[in-house]
Amino acid sequence: MEASDEQLMLAYGSGDAAAFETLYGRHKGPLYRFVLRSVKERAQAEEIFQDVWMRAIEARGRYEPKAKFSTWLYTIAHNRLVDHWRAKGLALVTLDDEDDPIDPPAGPSAEPHRRAEAREKVGRLLEALAALPAAQREAFLLHEESGLSIAEIATVTGTGEETAKSRLRYAMNKLREVIDDD
Amino acid sequence: MIEGDDPLSRRYRALPHEEPPASLDAAILAAARRAAAPRRSPARWAVPVSVAAVLALAVGITQHALREQPGIEVSPAGGEYSAPAYESAPPAAPPASAPEKRDTPAPASALEKSATPAPTSAPKKSATPSAASAPQPAASLDKVVPTEEQAAPATMQRAQPKPLGDSSQPVPAPQLEARQSARRADAASSPPVAPAAPASPHSERSTERLSQQAAPSAPAAASAPMPPRTKREATGMMANTAKEPIADPRVRELERIAQLRREGRHTEADEALAKFRRENPDYRIPEPLWDRVKPRS
Fold this sequence. Notes:
B: about 300 residues
């Protein structure tokens, strides 16, 4: 039977490096996409992505499976993103601001190799995702990429369940408008 | 909620499945392996080896000294270590001989008068020969407060070897410590205790009690379990740092970083903040506190 994420992380905390490799393999893709679609540039995304894993590695001795491993991992990622936004002089309260979407990802419009995608339906979804307020985009990505529930999203983002639910609902409504237009 | 067959979910899953570059994978996995690798603890074998080396050296030097000066254990005539001085210098009291000597109350009173209790009739300016003083420092110093004048010669003689079989006397250092501890005891109005003997658990506890009493500002609650606090309560306490200790060690650390910022020690603050983030990656720094600890651009 496959070991759970929590068991693997505990094993890694005890010195089993192979356990970490398995854990990394399971979560690297979703986490990478979560970060990539949350920030403006790929280089920044890679730096944040690596930072998140480094923090998880350093915290291995203090890890306690009080919640799902993915909740813990994405809490680290969220905090790291908050640091990123704060470094840009952005306060958390503005992350919900729809009028001034904070630090939208570059998306297809910024990087040449992605401009072709912009002409496709898939590209329009990426653009729409990029145009969401950061808090709503984050809620959507946490749900879709990492499969977190509303309660877990609330835990990761440090908000209440109602706030997490409303952010997710707003995000979905806006994205559905885009795909419905296709 | 997005269900698996929701059109939005299907459309999203159709997006490119970007993965991190192989170089990034390699770097992270290498870091993980390094972190998990068992640390070499040179201290494990280094300590016994160094102890053995010291012992071997000591034995060798002793043997060499004995070979060179076979009569060293006998009082040499006209030597640097003259007999009178040698005989009059029993500063070190081997604990092993202690029980044999602490059988009379007289030594205690004798010690009150003399800080250099000479077991023999060796001429000492302040010595009142104490025949059988209690060699156990902790017990004998319970009520002894040697004067400074008396303690000084004892201190000076400390370096001289104690003759074997000599009646033991209190060690000068414990005497000084006893005086200090007695002062503390007076100040704290606690029963006299002799913290001079490290081997005495009772004195250790007493020392600890004295130190606790001597620090009235030290919150007793610091050692007692604090009731659970919400994060808001924890951060709300920041406004009252001068009045009340902060229970959460993370908030305490952030307050320390904020203090560094106030003092303009930004380099230290940056390093401390980075270290805090590494050690507490899943801790959410509240906005008000973040404003006080954030890096200054």
